[in-house]
Amino acid sequence: MTSEHDRTQPVDANGHDDAVLPFAVEALDVRGRAVRLGPAVDTLLRRHGYPEPVARLLGEAAALTVLLGSSLKFDGRFQLQTRTDGPVAMIVVDFEAPDRLRATARFDAEKVAALGAGPLRTGDLVGNGHLAMTIDQGSAASRYQGVVALEGQSFEDAARQYFRQSEQIPTEVRLAVAEAVEGDGARWRAGGLLVQFLPQSTDRARLADLPPGDLPEGHVHLGAEAPEDDAWVEARSLVGTIEDHELVDPNVSSERLLYRLFHERGVRVFDRQEVRETCRCSRERVMGMIRSFTPQERRDMVADDGRIVITCEFCSRRYDLDPAEVEREIEAGPAQ
């Protein structure tokens, strides 16, 4: 997932929050994207009052989703979703091109608390299940989904596995989340870097084949032993030097980080893409959902006070509806 741009921009000495910065290192045949999330991710995480481990996990998922979704070259939606047996049973992050981000998590507070206050791995929180990445252009025919099994690995490892298996593109991913003191209080920040090896030459583009699923037991897949390209080894090694604080420090811009990593090879940065936290929910969408229920199901939705109240899981906005008015709208049919 990469993006073509034809304009470069000067290096910015100051951090630029809530933005994605595409870049290319042509000498190494790599392209990538760096993301920094400040107010957007802080709003996402504080709105629901998530426990600290859950907030960090959702922040990582948000940064990864922006890295992947911001590469869409069309109006559409990229969604990252997990379903697992761990204390955090589900995470959903939506990125609607070109810049709209929203996210939510479902978790068992008692199970999260039982894990203790020490540093927790992603696997401790999500357990086993799957991570799905969905690209939706607005119709069933244009919908694509890739699935990765979650077996205790990090989101970074899951992303690498996805690209290796689904697209066979060598990919390196780094993610970081921190709660930093800024101004009058603490603020959540998240950041990430994605680098992909996209060689132009035929020789460099010849990758080791993935082992076939029907390989007889005891046989060695020789293709898997093909040496990695030196350019990709170098790029991946440089990315491996990134410290977490470099991805989230407001005083270290994405441009400065990229310069530190790749200045000897020459790095170009392209037009920055803004990111904003916003929800897709609306009264019209809520009514569309309610129309899918049977009359009895709609009657069961009426609370003791005689109202139908629906709260958006993403932004916590409450829709307080009059059941009689709902029925009149349904009888009148969808709004034109």
TrEMBL record:
CDD domains, A to Z: Hsp33 (cd00498)
Record keywords: Chaperone, Cytoplasm, Disulfide bond, Redox-active center, Zinc
Single GO MF annotation: protein folding chaperone
Matches recorded under Pfam families: HSP33 (PF01430)
Superkingdom of source: Bacteria
GO cellular component: cytoplasm
UniProt cross-references to InterPro entries, sorted A to Z: Heat_shock_Hsp33, Heat_shock_Hsp33_C, Heat_shock_Hsp33_N, Hsp33_helix_hairpin_bin_dom_sf
Biological process (GO), any one: protein refolding
PANTHER family for the chain: 33 KDA CHAPERONIN (PTHR30111:SF1)
Name of this chain's protein: 33 kDa chaperonin
Protein's organism: Methylobacterium dankookense
Underlying gene: hslO
